[in-house]
Design brief:
By secondary structure, the protein is mainly α. The chain has helices at 13-20, 22-31, 37-40, 49-62, 71-82, 89-100, 104-121, 123-131, 139-153, 164-186, 199-207, 211-219, 226-243, 247-250, 256-270, 275-296, 300-315, 317-322, 330-348, 352-373, 379-389.
């Protein structure tokens, strides 16, 4: 078997092995070149891409492939369904309630200034994403698409086959495969960072929806108990399986503490944010500000300053300086607000009736937001299909 090389822009393999051990070093070396063959087969032949995507969208919506669907589509659906075999659905239901106990607009802070900022900080990911030409120019649409995908995960039974979370996660996975196919067509190679959107990139992104945002939310005043955090991580392990992240890489990641060693390993190979990272984050800040302006009816510029302050609060000064995020005086006011939020959230957990009302209110707001933004179809659904139909 051919041993793939350690990508040249992932830091020193020797230093990594010295710090994290030979076993993890070997696993990372393999994971850098590990895409998702079951998903990649959807786009292997340009002549069949359009038919595959049409069949896939119908299959994801119902939760099962039709008997006459292409083998690649049937294999894709089977892989997603098989990933759910050991899921604890009672845990998923508990986690859903924990997630919905936090106000939706604060989830948006955790998503934009938190999750997506961290995603774009990786040059390996940023370089692939900017090559699409969409994420900088269409940052507002991309933010909306990511938010809408997350919102579909939060409905009852959403992750089960035929549920909205299952359907939309499958389309996200297909989008990643499509990006890898386009990368290969351009002949960009894999010597710098490894396979585009590889298993390590996906694991890093998984932490962008667990470790990063929930530590950010804790800093904003939304402190979860040990049990609640364990349930949220379990929820996201189920989502990670649907996305095609190798199960062995997710094993044992139950909370912030157990994830810390792997987060440090991922950080060691992520690289320093580059020009693509800065371009994406700058566009993201604009998009978050515009979106909040529309929702709140407020001027965009103060909201931009608030978003920049939140990035510093969540990620710290070193990352913010690398991303060229300016320091804003509003950060002091944001910090002063945290104790009030923390007290209210703690009291909420002690009053069951009020907690139920809060969960119902947040679920209702999600429904309203989805209805307001999904009329035109989401980009992660339409992009692979449109390109496939065009023969790209």
């Amino acid at each position: 078997m051919t041993v793939q090389p350690w990508p040249r822009l992932r830091g020193s393999e020797a230093d990594f092995t010295d710090r994290f051990g030979e076993e993890l070093g070997d696993r990372f070396r393999r994971a850098f070149h590990e895409g998702a063959p079951v998903a990649d087969d959807l786009f292997a032949d340009p002549a069949t891409r359009a038919a595959h995507m049409k069949q896939l969208r119908a299959a994801l919506a119902t939760g099962a492939a039709a008997g006459d669907d292409a083998p690649a589509v049937r294999a894709f659906l089977a892989d997603m369904t098989d990933s759910l075999a050991d899921v604890d659905w009672e845990l998923v239901a508990r986690a859903r309630r924990v997630i919905l106990s936090i106000p939706i607009l604060d989830h948006s802070v955790a998503l934009g200034p938190g999750s997506l900022t961290n995603t774009y900080s990786s040059p390996a990911i940023a370089t692939v994403l900017t090559a699409t030409g969409r994420l900088v120019d269409g940052a507002l649409r991309r933010l909306t698409d990511t938010r809408n995908w997350l919102y579909h995960l939060y409905f009852e039974d959403a992750l089960k086959p035929g549920g909205g979370g299952f359907e939309h996660t499958g389309m996200v996975r297909a989008m990643h495969a499509f990006s890898r196919a386009q990368h290969r067509i351009r002949g960009d190679g894999n010597h710098d960072f490894g396979e585009p959107i590889n298993a390590i990139d996906m694991l890093r992104t998984w932490f962008d929806f667990t470790y990063v945002p929930y530590r950010g939310l804790d800093g904003m005043g939304y402190s979860l108990s040990t049990e609640q955090l364990h349930d949220v991580y379990g929820f996201w392990r189920a989502v990670g399986g649907l996305l095609g992240i190798p199960a062995d890489l997710l094993e044992g990641l139950d909370d912030h503490e157990s994830s810390q060693p792997m987060v440090e390993a991922i950080t060691a190979v992520a690289g320093t944010p580059n020009a693509d990272s800065r371009a994406l984050v700058d566009a993201l800040v604009d998009a978050v500000s515009q979106q909040l302006g529309l929702v709140l009816g407020l001027p965009v510029e103060p909201l931009r300053e608030r978003t920049e302050a939140q990035i510093r609060m969540i990620h710290g000064d070193q990352i913010a300086d690398w991303l060229e995020i300016p320091r804003r005086s509003i950060q002091v006011a944001e910090a002063l607000h945290v104790p009030t939020v923390r007290q209210r959230f703690a009291l909420l957990q002690q009053v069951p009736g009020v907690l139920e009302q809060e969960i119902a209110t947040n679920q209702g707001l999600i429904v309203q937001l989805l209805e307001a933004t999904e009329d035109g179809g989401s980009a992660y659904e339409t992009a692979p299909t449109a390109a496939a139909e065009a023969g790209a």
